[in-house]
Amino acid sequence: MTAASASVGSTHATVSPPPVLARCRALVRPALADAVGRLHPWPGEMAAHALGWRDTAGTPDPTASEGKGVRQALAVLGAEACGAPGESAVPGAVAVELVHVFSLVHDDIMDGDAMRRQRQAVWKTYGTGPAVLAGDALLAAAVQNLAETSGAHGAAAVLRLSRALTYLVRGQADDLLFADRPWTGPEAVSPDAYRSMAEHKTGALLGCAAALGALLGGAPDAAVTALEKAGRHLGVAFQAVDDLLGIWGDPARTGKPVHGDLRQRKKTYPVLAALASHGPTTRELAALLGSPYPPDDSAAARAADLVEAAGGRTATLAEAHRHLAAARACLRGAPRAVREIEELLGYLACRTV
């Protein structure tokens, strides 16, 4: 286990973003801005808001977060890891970033989340109908941008993105359906089912990003496949860390209340692993989560203690470690050094925002 992966459990530590994120963002940003600029002005305005570029008045918003830019960075690094220039991956980087933002805009509507990156979500600012339209526009722009890519690999790139979208939708469907399933019994969501959902909902696009970069850079099939597998494993680890932050993350850094996922009674990996342990605390935990009344501060804090006592936090850390190790193993299949991808893996494992 590396030093970076060993600190996955430190949900309050401050970890500086690696320089590669800023480097890749600077490379991709002009083409990303051009793609958004070709949208109808109204959905284009909402897209710029979702991307953290502008406020509702259309002026630059220096206080807004543009997000980490992980997917666009993975695309650029996927090309570079296979010996191609990062520029060759820019169409793929733009496409996956637009798809990611599209998914966030629609996810916030489906989940009823009013805040995104510590400011109002698009649907809360503009209304539900306009936000749906903005998401549709982002998705259309992603496909068009990739379809217009010159070179021999454009059609294969579009097909790969389409497959990732299918998996993403499958994962989101499972995630929504999980909400109606019981906490215990034969119909309960198992940790394995949750892992499959995370691989589809989060891992598919991360894997697609790295694979697109390699594909557009002319890499051999084996390298493309290795990078896609690495991204899928990274997605599961990414979701595991998100689940830890959803319960124990620092509100000053996450922008969400402490124990937020427990207050919303989300079926996340720490909770499901705790319930699957069938220990002496699981009955009380299931009763708390299954109550007809939303958990108050005291109940949410008690639930967090029970999840930890039942081994949910430890199991989630182990899950993140396993998939980070698997991602690193896949990267050994790439023909060039992947030091910056390693740095990115370490940062994502330790992130707090």
Explain the overall architecture:
This protein has 353 residues and is mostly helical. The protein contains 17 helices and two strands. The protein has helices at residues 3-6, 19-37, 41-50, 70-81, 90-111, 122-126, 128-147, 154-178, 191-216, 221-248, 251-254, 260-263, 269-276, 282-290, 297-309, 312-331, 339-350; strands at 115-116, 119-120. The protein has a two-stranded antiparallel ribbon. A hairpin with a 2-residue loop joins β1 (115-116) and β2 (119-120). The protein is globular, with a radius of gyration of 20 Å.
> What class, by secondary structure content?
mainly alpha
Determine the CATH superfamily. Farnesyl Diphosphate Synthase
Q: What CATH architecture do you see? A: Orthogonal Bundle
User: Spatial order of the strands in the main sheet?
Assistant: 1-2
Radius of gyration: 20 Å
Mean pLDDT: 90
Reading the helices and strands in chain order gives: HHHHHEEHHHHHHHHHHHH
CATH class: Mainly Alpha
Q: Tell me the strand percentage band.
A: under 5%
- Termini separation comes to 23 Å
How many separate structural domains? 1
Low-confidence stretches: 1-13
| Helical residues, percent | 55-70%
- The number of strands is 2
Secondary structure tally, helices = 17
Summarize the structure.
This protein has 353 residues and is mainly α.
